[in-house]
């Protein structure tokens, strides 16, 4: 199978661009997450790499979030393995020593939003048709505490409360208003703006402050990792939750017709 992720490291700037290239929607399957983590680990260990920009090669979609097929009709063991990979992706990204920028050039629901808010800064295409948010409640599922924590850290408690309880997806302009993204630029300038912005982040020569800001949130998952997996598996394998997921999948398919 062809790689779902392509990484280009510019040795002169120390900035890597990670492109998600898994059609149709860059959904986060177990294979995708594994590949993502391997790439992140490589960059993290590479002393010459100090900045990471994450973007998508697909038109219209940054990432559709967790692959729903990984949560539907799968064995508890497989669900556990999948969830561990989701945790790992977030731990590596949120805790990265690199400066990280999400160049959001399309829609970014649920897990796509988690990936975006795992970065230090977000630049989104100024297109009202693109949306971003933690819409889990609309699928009949509950965003885990560390999704919630990351959102609270990004937009504050009140905006996070509204956003999570209603499962809101924000259009790019609305996302800017609540601070879910930091900047909107024309679609063809998303990556170049990310490159320019990165130089500002790299001019500040430490990641200790970043770690100070994020450590508590990360430690909370680290010390509850197994319980969080058990919790996910028992939740997602419930008949009622499986029914919700099936209905949501059917809705996604019928929307197309
Ligand atoms: N997983 C699997 N398949 C998907 C997903 C997904 N997340 N999203 C889309 N697809 C499929 C569609 O079903 C469709 O399949 P097919 O071609 O066979 O009909 C194909 O991808 C293309 O999708 P669209 O036609 O919808 O493409 P568009 O370009 O029109 O729209 C969007 C792209 C906006 C990304 C749209 O597909 C969308 O809204 N997708 C759903 C996004 C979503 O709600 N994801 C939530 C995933 S759950 C999650 O990430 C966190 C879960 C936390 C669990 C906690 C439990 C305790």
Q: Residue share in helices? A: 40-55%
The residue-averaged pLDDT reads: 96
Structure class = alpha/beta
Sequence of secondary-structure elements? EEHEEHEEHEEHHEHEHHHH
* CATH topology (level 3) name: 2-enoyl-CoA Hydratase, Chain A, domain 1
Give the number of helices.
10
Query: Low-confidence segments, ≥5 residues, pLDDT <50?
Result: none
Strand content: 15-25%
Structure commentary:
The protein has 257 residues and is an alpha/beta fold. The chain has a single domain, classed as 2-enoyl-CoA Hydratase, Chain A, domain 1. It is 50% helix and 17% strand. The protein is built from ten helices and ten strands. The strands form two sheets. The chain has a six-stranded mixed sheet, sandwiched between helices. Helix 2 crosses helix 9 and helix 4 packs antiparallel against helix 8. The relative contact order is 0.14. The model has no long low-confidence stretch (mean pLDDT 96). The structure holds octanoyl-coenzyme A.
Summarize the structure.
By secondary structure, the chain is α/β, with parallel strands linked by helices.
Give the tags:
single chain; alpha/beta; 2-enoyl-CoA Hydratase, Chain A, domain 1; six-stranded mixed β-sheet; 10 strands; 50% helix; globular; binds octanoyl-coenzyme A
Q: Which helices and strands, and how do they pair?
A:
Blueprint: E1 5-10, E2 15-20, H1 30-45, E3 51-56, E4 60-61, H2 76-94, E5 99-104, E6 106-109, H3 111-117, E7 121-125, E8 131-133, H4 145-155, H5 157-166, E9 170-171, H6 172-178, E10 183-185, H7 190-202, H8 208-222, H9 225-236, H10 239-256
Parallel strand pairs: 2-3, 3-5, 4-6, 5-7, 6-8, 7-10
Antiparallel strand pairs: 1-2, 8-9
Helix pairs in contact: 1-2, 2-9, 4-5, 4-8
The structure holds octanoyl-coenzyme A (CO8).
């Amino acid at each position: 199978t062809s790689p779902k992720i392509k990484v280009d490291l510019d040795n002169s700037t120390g900035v890597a661009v990670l492109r998600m290239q898994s059609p149709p929607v860059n959904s986060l399957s177990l294979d995708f997450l594994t590949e993502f983590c391997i790439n992140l680990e490589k960059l993290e260990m590479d002393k010459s790499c100090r900045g990471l920009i994450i973007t998508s090669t697909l038109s219209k979609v940054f990432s559709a979030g967790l692959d729903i097929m990984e949560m539907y009709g799968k064995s508890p063991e497989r669900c556990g393995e999948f969830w561990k990979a989701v945790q790992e992706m977030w731990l590596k990204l949120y805790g990265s020593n690199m400066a990280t920028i999400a160049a959001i050039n399309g829609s970014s629901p649920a897990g796509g939003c988690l990936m975006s808010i795992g970065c230090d800064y977000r630049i989104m295409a100024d297109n009202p048709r693109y949306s971003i948010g933690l819409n889990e409640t609309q699928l009949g599922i509950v965003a885990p505490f560390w999704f919630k924590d990351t959102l609270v850290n990004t937009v504050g408690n009140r905006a996070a409360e509204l956003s999570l309880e209603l499962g809101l997806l924000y259009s790019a302009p609305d996302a800017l208003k609540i601070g879910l993204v930091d900047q909107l630029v024309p679609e063809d300038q998303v990556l170049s703006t990310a490159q320019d912005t990165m130089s500002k982040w790299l001019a500040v020569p430490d990641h200790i402050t970043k770690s100070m800001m994020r450590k508590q949130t990360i430690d909370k998952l680290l010390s509850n990792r197994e319980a969080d997996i058990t919790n996910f598996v028992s939740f997602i394998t419930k008949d009622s939750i499986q029914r919700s997921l099936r209905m949501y999948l059917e809705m996604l398919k019928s929307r197309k017709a």
